[in-house]
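Example 3.2
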Amino acid sequence: MEFKDYYKVLEVAKDATAEDIKKSYRKLARKFHPDVSKEPEAEEHFKQVQEAYEVLKDPEKRAAYDELGANYRQGQQFRPPPDWGSRFEFRGEPGGDAGFSDFFSSLFGDRSPFGGPQGRGAGFRGRGEDSHAQLDVTLEEAYAGSQKTIELARPELVAGRVQSRTRTLRVTIPAGVTEGQLIRLAGQGSAGMGSDASAGDLYLKVHLLPHERYEVDGRDVTLTVPIAPWEAALGQAVSVPTLGGPVDMRIPAAARAGSRLRLRGRGLPGDPPGDQYVVLKIVVPPVTSAHARELYEQLKVESNFDPRAEWSAPG
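Structure, written as tokens:
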């Protein structure tokens, strides 16, 4: 995916004011509008201008885009970093993809960190807008529950230019949270209109950070466990890590590489709790001595085992 320089598309400087951006957008929109333009590829240019304006007209999106794009130029290969979106707070409802490019969708579309919950928005009594942000959570925090201090930047438009206001919040993460789950902080959204109007809420969308050992699917977790050939052949109890601590698991005799065993209830807590699946990986010991080679040679003769026998089987 290629990085898009929205400032270049709108023909404005990176320190352009909101008014500068609006003026340039109107000029280019008239120039490339497919109903009237004689320019080559006018419709495609018009879509690019629309997409760039969607980002740069919004102080929040613009601030996030500026931070991300500091080290990129138009056309460079790009992939959002893993923590993309975890430092910003967005007000109101997500804007959706609106038929824009994959680049836009990866940053601000419905499936991005900024594609937040459908907040209730401002009510007729002047209730403040709801806000949304991404909350990065480790698997250990999701399993045990925890309290976490986070900092969120809320970009604001001041005198036509973007400024960020950072605030610190203490968040309680309940045990058993899953990917995409929403944590609601009542009254932590935008202030309401009027002295007696209530503030909106802040919705934190949980993003489970990748784990070095476990893969997560809902409340279930999967762990690959290396075992020795004799453990697979003879069967044996081995100690297996789980999120709640090690447990003994019995490997059945004649176990095969890739076999999946289940530890019921050992995934993320919930009602019901998830399970932990163990995928077996057979690790062959290296030949480190003459005696070890002799043992392998003896096993080769006495077992008379052909791992490719099924290739020559009839049918």
